[in-house]
Write a structure and sequence with these properties.
This protein is an alpha/beta fold. It has 8 helices and 15 strands. The chain has one domain. The chain starts with 8 loop residues before the first strand and ends with a strand. Residues 20-166 form the Calcineurin-like phosphoesterase domain.
Length: 284
């Protein structure tokens, strides 16, 4: 598989399942592109096959999609068939499929009520807590809505999507491309919680936030330098409460094959030295 296909992670849970976690499949994106004059064949089967290929490679038995399962924000009229086809393809290969609602998933419940297999479950955008095999409590959500305070208090880490992180890379020939990345942010849980809930919550220690890239191959993502060094209030992301622009040294960036690129402060210095062209990586 190419690097672009490894846009998720796996978690072994205490119930014996190996969960594949992905985010932002944006099924039906090609419908919107068609309205703008960009004609692209249906991608639902391709996206489903990428999910199944990744599951086979990793041994995943169940699936979580962390929001923006579909692309059309409210309407489901034109993309309902694509979404239903996608869900039926993937649900037939997993024990469980859990969908966490994202900001694009209005009326997704109407699709699930019609001809979708019973092993598909819909969770609201505040997410849910999964306990891993090693006892860690993972709060899984899209990232556009605050989690329940009790879930946040109990969580050891947050895994989310929503912001579509990517990075500009320049190869040895000078060609510049944008590649999706996985980002790990280490935050002070007490400060993060106080900012998010506007009250002292009594949490202590550090916690990690894992931000997954978009899974849809048509949406490479947004440059990390347009996300983490800025206060993206208009994006409605909980990362606003982490004040990421103040802790760039605590933000680690990985390619989707888990190649470690460095922390954001170091990458910023490299980017300044190289200009806007990106990062020089020898793929050969």
């Amino acid at each position: 598989m190419s690097i672009e296909e490894f846009r998720g992670i796996t978690v072994d849970s205490e119930d014996g399942e190996r969960w594949l976690l992905i985010a932002d499949t944006h099924v039906g994106l090609e419908v919107e592109l068609g309205k703008k004059g960009v004609r692209i064949p249906s991608q639902s089967a391709r996206i489903a096959q990428l999910v199944l290929d990744f599951a086979e490679r990793t041994g995943a038995t169940s699936l979580v999609i962390l929001g923006d399962v579909k692309h059309e924000i409210a309407s489901i009229v034109e993309s309902a068939k694509e979404i239903r086809e996608f869900l039926n393809r993937v649900s037939g290969k997993f024990n469980k499929v859990v969908l966490v609602k994202g900001n694009h998933d209005g009326n997704l419940d109407l699709i699930l009520s019609s001809d979708v297999k019973p092993n598909v479950y819909l969770i609201d955008s505040r997410g849910f807590v999964m306990r891993s095999k090693d006892g860690k409590k993972l709060l899984l959500l899209h990232g556009n809505s605050k989690p329940r305070i009790e879930d946040f208090m109990n969580a050891d880490a947050i895994i989310m999507g929503h912001t579509h992180p990517a990075i500009l890379i320049q190869d040895v020939t000078g060609y510049v491309m944008r590649s999706p990345v996985i980002v790990k942010i280490r935050v002070n849980k007490s400060v993060f919680g106080k900012n998010m809930y506007n009250t002292e919550i009594g949490a202590t220690g550090l916690m990690n936030i894992i931000v997954l890239p978009t899974f849809n191959p048509l949406t490479v993502g947004m440059d990390v330098f347009e996300i983490f060094p800025k206060d993206l209030v208009e994006v409605e992301t909980i990362l606003h409460y982490a004040r990421t622009w103040e802790i760039l040294g605590n933000i680690e960036v990985y390619l989707t094959d888990m190649t470690y690129l460095g922390t954001m402060d170091v990458l910023a210095r490299i980017r300044e030295d190289m200009g806007e062209g990106g990062y020089d990586i020898d793929w050969l």
